[in-house]
Every structure is written in structure tokens, then in C-alpha cells.
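> run fold Class 1 fructose-bisphosphatase
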Amino acid sequence: MENITTLGEYIIENQSDFPYSSGELSKLLNSIKLASKMVNHEVNKAGLVDIIGGIGDVNVQGENQQKLDVFANTKFIQAITNRDIACGIVSEEVEDYISLHGSDNTNNGKYVVLMDPLDGSSNIDVNVSVGTIFSIFRRITPVGTPVELKDFLQPGSAQVAAGYIIYGTSTMLVYTTGKGVNGFTLNPATGSFYLSHPNIQIPENGQIYSVNEGNYSHFPQGVKNYIKYCQKEEENRPYTSRYIGSLVSDFHRNMIKGGVYLYPNCVKNKAGKLRLLYEANPIAFIAEQAGGKATNGHKRILDIIPTELHQRIPLFCGSSNMVEKLESFL
Ligand code: P6P
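> ok
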């Protein structure tokens, strides 16, 4: 077998990519890798055991919590907490941020992690791919309990790492530390992630647009005009419409094949639906590192200064030329 690199080997071999890190960021990425394997195991057997379906609770988003949502949230929090490297966590499943700083002044970890532990979980019951999305920053406050405004509400441009795990026909972990984007595929037989997609580059152009057209009548006029542009019999159009309803899956397809993903603001979701801190920011960091673009329609996602932990934002991302064309309609 030719020399194939595991995720663990890759993290160690590229340790020098992490400025100022004496191994902590590597350990944090390994923690995320570990938790993703546990979540993958549960997702893969969701249809077999009574883990599907709501647990009767709703999360901070007011969405019915799936058992797997809760399981994933718990596993990622446990894995991240075990290493004393992160001082705090923001999760889509939890209202306030979680401080990991010990009352005995232990754990002054230099990183904070923001995550959507199981995005697209409403698709679980119908066996559609779901994903985990994570974003990592260095803390700004030097020690002690992290401070929301300083440590968590940082612009996406300050991320030191971001990634997603897609639990699909195969399970992949795709991440960046600011030196390009690499994809690792899990071999269930060995339990290891192997470098399968080195240096992912989003094609500048694509033939796919991804949007929930059921919301068409509520979209801003510019978005409507762009969708009609995609559908027009002209030049290399009409484009293909592909919408899975799972951000990680729709984005990953566009990463590999080229395309543009749209989640606009609309009458129903005035600020859009997706969350800035743990959906748009990590996706935007990855998109740009792969040569793509990510905008809220008027501003680069990574330049937006957050104001709330769970704030929503419109998201348009994918192939650079397609995003630029879309922006010209807005
Ligand atoms: P809609 C899943 O709930 C999610 O957050 C993303 O994964 C997905 O892209 C989007 O919402 C789907 O939303 O309104 O089209 O069902």
C-alpha cells in the first residue's frame, strides 16, 4: 500500500503550521478526532437502536432535540474538556458559553472552541448525511474564566483552525489551520482517518446552486433575480439545483464539484437562519482557504464582528466566481 498518512501523523507532521503552539492545538484537534469517531459510531447505527427521535426537549434554538444531538454535544464537550487546552466552549445546543476554567484556577487553556455538534440533525430520521462543525480561536484574555465579549465574539478572521466532519456514505474530517484545506476519510476497519483529499481547492466556477427554493417568495428581490439567472437557458446555464438541507453536505459537495450555497435572509428568518459563530465562520474560513468565497451578501463573513453567541447571518458561499456573480445581483 502506498504511503498513506493518517490524520494523527498529519497533525504532528504539520505542527509547525500552528504559530505559538507547543502542541496544544494538535492535542485539541486530536480530541475532536476522537469525539468524531464516537459520534460516527452512533450515527451509523441510529436506525437500529432507539436513539432516533426527539427526547422531548428543545435546545436553545427552540428546535426539538434529537437524542443524537445530545449525545454528540456531550461527547465533544467531554473530549475537549479532558485536555485542559480549551478554556471555554460555545455549542449550538447550549444557551450560554461553557467555562472550563477551574475554580481552583486550573485550566487556563489558551483556546476556545465553538461548535455545532450535530448540524442537520432533523435529517437523521430519514438517513440523510449530517455533520459536526467546529471553530477554534486563541483566547484574548490571558487567564481565568473566559470573557464572552473578548474570547468568543471575535471576528472569523481570527480563527486559528476550523473544520467539519461529514457523517455520510463515508465519514470525512475536513479542516484548515490557515495553510490550505485537507480532507481525511475514516476507514471503519482500522478506525483511522486517512489523508484522502490533500489541498482541496474549490473550482472557481461550478454548475450547481444550492438553496431552499421553498422560501423563494420570501427572498429579497436580488436573490430571486439570481435564482432566475441560474435557471435561464443561456451560456452554460441552466445550472443544476441540488439542496440536501444539511449545510455540511451541501457545502462539501460544492467544495469538491464547484457550486454556490445560499441561505438568504427572508421574511421567516429576517437575519437568515444559519449561526455566525459556529456555522458561517468555520465554513467561511474553509471556503477561503480552498480558494472560494463566503459573504453575507454585502460583507466578507470573516470580517463581521459578532455581537451575540447565537446570532444568525445570511450565508452565500462556494466557488469564487459564482459568489461574485451572486453579489452583483444583491
Ligand atoms: P431549511 C439544518 O437545520 C441547517 O441548520 C443546515 O444544516 C441546513 O443547510 C439548513 O438548516 C436547512 O434549513 O430551512 O432549508 O430546512
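Residues 74 and 124 are 18 Å apart (CA to CA).
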